[in-house]
Amino acid sequence: MENVIKTRLLVAEDDESLGLLLKDFLIAKGFDVVLCDNGKKAFDSFSKNNYDLCIFDVMMPEKDGITLTREVRMINKNIPIMFLTAKSMKEDIIEGFNRGADDYITKPFDTEELLVRIEALLRRSKPREDGSDEFQIGAYSFNFKSQALNFRGKHEKLTTKEAELLRLLCLNANNVLDRNFALKAIWQNDSYFNSRSMDVYVTKLRKYLKDDPNVQIINIHGKGFKLYVEKGA
């Protein structure tokens, strides 16, 4: 029998009845669905797994949908994100779009309309998703999936955490990568031990990138790190 890879959705909804109804409907439509009942659980799941589309309720305990969207966008700029929101929350809808949401649907909603919106977002996202795991860093090329860093015929195989950290730096190239955010995204917490561990990985990445003088990983005191790539390099 042929194995079909299902489109994977992350749903964050704190209303248990609505969440289960939504999950059952989407599974019946052929999706692979992970349901979380608060924003913190959803972010932890997103950090550890690959998804094709996210559906976030705006009002949730632990972490609201707008904050969740902002943090997800720091990891993946291209994944489609849809909001579930109340009709009266116009300000939150605007803020959600500012933070990186792609679409929204108001409660109560028609499930078939939701399905059409999901399919439209998935279609639009495909061209942007192509090559999203491949990065050019000055004279280096980096493939996140294969964890390979290449420089003029010289190949370096990265560990999983090295690759995850370099990917976050690439996604935020020439901008500051918040230290605590990176710790929570990769190590799941920002303890002192994990913080020191991340410093070791940054040192390793600097060593791997030392052959191109146009590329640097800079410490931003009190904030985090910046992967600086000189323009035109």
Describe this structure as you would to a colleague.
The protein is of the alpha/beta class. The chain has two domains: 8-129, Rossmann fold (3-Layer(aba) Sandwich); 134-229, Winged helix-like DNA-binding domain superfamily/Winged helix DNA-binding domain (Arc Repressor Mutant, subunit A, Orthogonal Bundle), CATH 1.10.10. 43% of the residues lie in helices and 24% in strands. It is built from eight helices and twelve strands. It has helices spanning 16-28, 39-48, 65-75, 90-99, 111-129, 160-171, 179-186, 192-208, and strands spanning 8-12, 32-36, 53-57, 81-86, 103-107, 134-137, 140-143, 148-151, 154-157, 176-178, 215-220, 224-229. The strands form three sheets. The protein has a five-stranded parallel beta sheet with strand order 2-1-3-4-5, with helices on both faces. Strands 6-7-8-9 form a four-stranded antiparallel beta sheet, with helices on one face. Strands 10-12-11 form a three-stranded antiparallel beta sheet. β3, α3 and β4 (81-86) form a beta-alpha-beta unit. α3 packs parallel to α4 and α6 (160-171) packs across α8 (192-208). It starts with 7 loop residues before the first strand and ends with a strand. Mean pLDDT is 86; it is low at 127-131.
- In percent, how helical is the residue content? 40-55%
Corresponding CATH superfamily of the largest domain: Response regulator
Report the CATH topology name of the largest domain.
Rossmann fold
Q: Please give the radius of gyration in angstroms.
A: 19 Å
Give the CATH class of the largest domain. Answer: Alpha Beta
User: Which sequence of SSEs, written as H and E, runs from N to C?
Assistant: EHEHEHEHEHEEEEHEHHEE
Give the end-to-end Cα distance, rounded to a whole number of Å: 49 Å
Extended strand count: 12
Give the strand line-up of the largest sheet.
2-1-3-4-5
Oligomer: single chain
Shape: elongated
Give me the number of helical elements: 8
Architecture of the largest domain in CATH?
A: 3-Layer(aba) Sandwich
Ranges with pLDDT <50 over ≥5 residues? Answer: 127-131
Number of domains: 2
Structural class: alpha/beta
* Major beta-sheet overview: 5 strands, parallel
